[in-house]
Amino acid sequence: MLAFVGLAALLTSFVGAGWLAFAGARTAVAQRRGEPGTDLRTPVLMVLTGALASMAVLQAALLFDDFTLAYLGNNHARATPFPFNVATAWAALEGSIVLWGLVLATFTWLVWRDHDRRRDALSAGALAVMGLVGVFFFGLMLTVANPFEVCIEAAANRCLASSPWPWSPIQAPADGPGPNPLLQNHILMAIHPPLLYLGYVGLTTPFAYAISALALTLPGPEWLRRTRRWSLVAWSFLTLGILFGGWWAYEVLSWGGYWAWDPVENASLMPWLVATAFIHSSLVQQRRGMLQAWNFVLVISAFALTILGTFLTRSGTITSVHSFTQSAIGPVLLGFLVLVLAGSFALFATRSHLVASAPRLDSFWSREGSFLANNLILTVFASVVLVGTIYPLVLEAFTGTQVGVGKPFYNRLTVPLSFALLLTMGLGSVTPWRHAAGPLVWNRIRGPLQVALAAGLVTAVIGTRLGWVVLAVVASVFVIGVIVRHLTELAGRRSRATGRGFFTEALHVLRGDQGYWAGQVSHVGVALVALGLAFTSNLSVHETFELEPGDTFAFAGYEMTYRAPFQRTEPSRTVVGANIEVHSDGRLVAELQPRANHFGSDPTGIPSPAVMSRLSGDVYLMLINIDNTGIRLEANTSPLIWLLWVGGLVTAAGGFWATQARRAERRTTALEAADA
Prior knowledge:
Layout: H1 2-32, H2 41-63, H3 70-75, H4 84-87, H5 93-118, H6 121-142, E1 150-154, E2 159-163, H7 192-202, H8 204-215, H9 222-252, H10 263-288, H11 292-314, H12 329-350, H13 352-355, H14 367-399, H15 407-428, H16 438-463, H17 467-498, H18 502-512, H19 514-539, E3 542-547, E4 552-555, E5 558-570, E6 573-584, E7 587-592, E8 595-599, E9 606-608, E10 610-614, E11 617-626, E12 631-639, H20 642-675
Antiparallel strand pairs: 1-2, 3-12, 4-5, 5-6, 6-7, 6-8, 8-9, 10-11, 11-12
Helix pairs in contact: 1-2, 1-6, 2-5, 5-6, 5-7, 6-8, 7-9, 8-9, 8-11, 9-10, 9-20, 10-11, 10-14, 11-12, 14-15, 15-17, 16-17, 17-18, 17-19, 19-20
């Protein structure tokens, strides 16, 4: 029964998406001619209703342990606890595409709401493009990635064969193997993928508006104004998705790291970099009418990179903790990626004459010049990551040779680019539009530069003389200092003029240009991330100890004692670990339990580290081996790693504030128009 309802829901969304693509295109053409067009409410609601119903059916099957569905028979178990049974809906290939479709349907409905208020060709064309994307993804779910196939041949705890026809003879297993142990080892599994999908799928909206603008020969800044909020929402969620993914890796993967330049990690970073460049360059076009062609190239590239990321994650082409097993979906996704690139850039080429003419840059030493430099750095950064990710796959495809591109390649190229990016962020924040006079800019950066150099000197004297760390301190403090100095100067000037308090005027300044200051908050977050990366990457300490019960060892200024092993049974798993007491100056400060979690009949277990967090950083203990005689323990330090987590949250907060700032600006404009 559930299989039939789920299949009907997918078919509803598929038909609705096709209807939306056709009706949206006709409406866009009609409204471009000044004719009313048709109402798109029904196909949009079909897409949304079908997507909601398909996810609801999948969740109902998981909550009620309906193993007649092959998806559950291979990815779920009765013992899977809440909320991991809910998260199982996106823990494997077919379910993750259902989540993708639901997010796409939600964004489609939100765009339709905007269209319903405006009823113009641009938004109708965008809905048509989103309908086409929906046709592809809901078509995937009806064919090569069907989550509602029924099990027709079962083993004791697995489905061996399945059928897409709901009325096929069913043979359901009594239980299933459960989700991948790595994916039920930490609560962030329930959070990280949805956040990442909101970012990934959210980039469909600016892409849809861009294609609509090109197709309807409306290349002006209006499509950018429409997509500004959507771009910021997608970028902010993508930022959170990457952040929580790194946090998940740090807490679960037991190697003390948060980023390994894994191909699928790179697949989320690349669209983030390109989307960041797009958000900045769109401001230049709206303010100065420049970079029109560049904006189209960036938004098409960002969307294409999300499809590439989907291909890398779900095709089975690469070996990764993120990737799923080999599937027929790989060639289909690759074909869709080629179609998106070929079709979009062919359309762009036919409209190139409309976007080629734009005002020239008055001076490179200007706000728009710094934005251009920022975009070039971000684009080169993304290109480096793309080459490092794709090169091994292409080489293996054509020659059969397997090679790996590791950290040395990425660090050698991306670290200098990161420092250049910090420099342009610091200068661009206080550089005027059109032309920047040297004395004016120097006056704005002189004080922050002095503070930054002093911070670097203090770091070298009492911290470390490692060049990359000192340089990161100087660059990050410079960025933050420029922003703080600019805010205090404006607030102080207003305070002296009005006689009101400094903090009152500072709030007034922040409210006065919320979009600008939201961007500066994100810049502060990026600077904090840079600091966290510099300290944890260069100053971490790693040691391995072999211990028997009662042994004490010194590490990171603490005395640690291995007391005894332990074993306990928790829902869906057995936990085996070691009790470690941590003392400082003879005082007990923490009791840590590095452990291995055994799911089902897994004999090896999933190592799960114990982390002691302090203001100075984390102490990270990982259990390598445990037996009746003793343990083998790896101890790591992560200096000031909290700067990385806080910086990521601040960066995303700036993006979300910017979306609200746009709404506030529109309300202010509307009120001023009404008063006039």
